[in-house]
Amino acid sequence: MRYEIIFSPEAEADIAAFKASDRARILDAIETFLRYEPEKTSKSRIKRLQQMQQPQYRLRIDDLRAFYDVSYSYDGGGIVEILRIREKSEAMKWLAEFGRREE
Question: Cα separation of 53 and 103, whole Å?
Fold first, then answer.
């Protein structure tokens, strides 16, 4: 199944802040790994975040981390919402501050 990929306003601002070569690398990785199998976890690339309601997943793009959720529309289509893209050094701080734990 082909998933629709949407970006939150914060993720769009994150992408715009990177230099052009990093933007290309980010968008290529998102297209490659999230378009068809966004929930397929691996040892290092895609990780399901434990005990988190939002974000649900993290995509590793070299020294960057893209946080995203996967949902399904009423007609069964899949949607991947990219929430934020942070550098590795900032990722855990952002997750602790803005992530929502399961209740």
Answer: 8
CATH of the domain at 82: 3.30.2310.20
Instruction: Indicate the number of domains in the chain.
Output: 1
d(CA 78, CA 56): 14
The model's pLDDT over 55-87, given as tens digits with 9 standing for 90+, comes to: 999 999 999 999 999 999 888 789 999 999 999
Residue 23 lies in a domain: yes
CA dihedral defined by 12, 89, 94, 84, rounded to 10 degrees?
A: 20
> Tell me, what's the pLDDT at 74?
84
